[in-house]
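Board notes, transcribed. Complex of a protein with flavin-adenine dinucleotide.
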Amino acid sequence: MPIQGKILYDWPNAGIEEPLVLSAPDQLGTEPYDVTIVGAGVVGCAIAYNLSQYQLRVLLVEKRYDVGEGTSKGNSAIIHTGFDSTPGSLESHLVTQASHKWPDLAQKLKIPFEPSGALLLAIDGEQEGKLEKIHEKALTNGVDDVRLVDAAEAKHLEPNASSEVRGGLLIPRESIADPFTTSIAYAEVAMANGVDILLGAHIVGLENCQSTVKNLVTESGHRIATRLLVNTAGLGGRDLADLYHGAPFDINPRRGQFLIFDKFCRSIVRRILLPVPTAKTKGVLVIPTVFGNLLAGPTAEDFPLGSPEATSTTAEGLRWMLSSASGLCPCLMKQPVIGVYAGERCNCKQGSYLIRYNDGYPGILTIAGIRSTGFTSSIALAEYVTEGLGEQCDLSLDRDPDAVDSRPDSCWPGWWRKPIDDAGVVKKNPDYADMVCFCEQISRGEIIDALDSMLKPRTLDALKRRTRVSMGRCQGFECRVRVAKIVSEHCDIPLDNITQKGPGSELIAPAHEAIYG
Ligand SMILES: Cc1cc2nc3c(=O)[nH]c(=O)nc-3n(C[C@H](O)[C@H](O)[C@H](O)COP(=O)(O)OP(=O)(O)OC[C@H]3O[C@@H](n4cnc5c(N)ncnc54)[C@H](O)[C@@H]3O)c2cc1C
C-alpha cells in the first residue's frame, strides 16, 4: 500500500486538532512536489485522482475549507451523454467518453448514481420542428441509443407531462449522480495513494516562474515548491493565470438558479425532463435527484466576474423557473419548494474547455472554461490532461503498481446505505439509532463517521455534503446546533470556533453558547 497523503488546513486559530493545522513549511516535506494542482473542485480532484495512479509527488491546494465547494457544489447533477454538445469539439469528445465510464466509476468510488434517462419534450409546433435536427446531432455525437417518440408515447412515458406535448426525444443513458460525493471520493482515493491536500490556502503569489522549480505563495505567507503547476481554479482561474502571465481568457460567470421540491414530489416524473433548447440556453429542466428530491432549473444570467449577486437567488428568477418547469409538467405549480440555490458557470468568451500547456512559462497548465459539463467530463478530462502533461511538460508517467482506484464499501454515504435499517449494525453502534436530522434521518453515528473520514471535514457545510444533515425540509432549523455540539465534543473544538464554511462564518457567538450550553 502507498503511504497515505496528508490533509492539512491553512487555518490558524481554528481550534482544530493541531496535527491538521499547517504551521511549519516542513509539514509538506522538504522535496518539491512534481505537480501542484490549484483548485479542488471536481476537475482538480479528478486530476489528483488520476495522477495518484502514477509514481509522483502531488499536492492539491484549495482556498476554501473543503473540496468541491465552488461551482462543483451548485449544479444540476446530471451525467450527460453529450447528445447535444457541439459535434467535433473537445467537450463533446470528453463528455461522450466520460458518460460511458460513469456507471463503473460510480461503483468504484461509491458515488450514488441512477441511470434515470431523460425525455426532451416539444410543447408547440415550432419546437416539434426542431426535434429531427436534435436527433441528428445526437447521432453525430455518437449517442446512437436515442430515439424520437410521438405525443402518445411521450405521455405514456411521462404521464404528468403537459397535455400540450407534441413529441419528444428519448435519451436512455442520461443519468443523475451525487455531485458532492464525487469530489470527495476522487480526493480520498488520491490521498490514499499519497497525494497531500491543503485546504484554506489561497494562492496569491508565484515566484521563480521561469525555473524548473517554482514557488507558490499562500495568502498566509507559506511557500510551496513545485515542478509543475496545474490551474484548475475555475472562477479564480484568471487571477491565478495573471500571476504567470497566462494567455488571455475572460471569465463571465453565468448564474444558474434552482428550486428544490419536497421529496414526495419525486414520483411526479420518472426521468429528467428537458425542454427544446434555445440558442443561448438549454432552458429550465425538471430533474430528479439521487437524494430523492426534484429540482427545477437552472436560469442562465450573466454577471461580471466577482459580482456578489452571482450566487444569490432572486424572487423573479424563481418565479420564472416555476412557470417554465410547469410548462413541461403543470402539476409542479402547486408543489412545495423546500429550498433554493444558485451556482456560477465558468463561462469564457474564448470558448469552452480551454487547455493550455506551458502557458506563460514551461511547466504551467491552465484549464479554463469548464462551463456546463465538468461534473460529467471530469474523469475523461483528467485522463486527457494527464497524458498531455506527459507529452507536453515531460512529466514521467510510471504507473504505481500499488495504487488503488476505488474506495471500500464502507464509504457509501450513510444516507444511501441507511445504517438505521440494519439491526445488526445498530446493535454494534447505537449511535446509528440516535437521530440528529429528522428530515433526512441522519444519525449521530453517520456524523461521527464523516468527522473521522479521510479529509477530516470540520465545517458544517462539509458535513452537510457528506451526510445530508440539515439538507431536508427544515433546512437545519432543528439540528444545526446539535450538529455543532457533536463536532465540538468529538473533535475537542470550542463551540464558538465551529463554523458553517470556514473563518468568518462562526455559528454560535459566545452569548449564544451560554444559552445552548
Ligand atoms: C447552474 C449549473 C448547472 C450545471 N449542471 C451540470 C450538470 O448537470 N452536469 C455537469 O456535468 N456539469 C454541470 N455544471 C458544470 C459543472 O458544475 C462545472 O463544470 C464544474 O463543477 C467545474 O468544476 P471546476 O473544478 O472547474 O470548478 P470549481 O468547482 O469552481 O473549482 C475551482 C476551485 O478553485 C478554488 N480556487 C480558486 N482560486 C484559487 C486560488 N487562487 N487558490 C486556491 N484555490 C482556488 C475555488 O475555491 C474552487 O473550489 C453545471 C454548472 C452550473 C453552475
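The chain has 15 helices and 23 strands. The longest helix spans residues 90-109.
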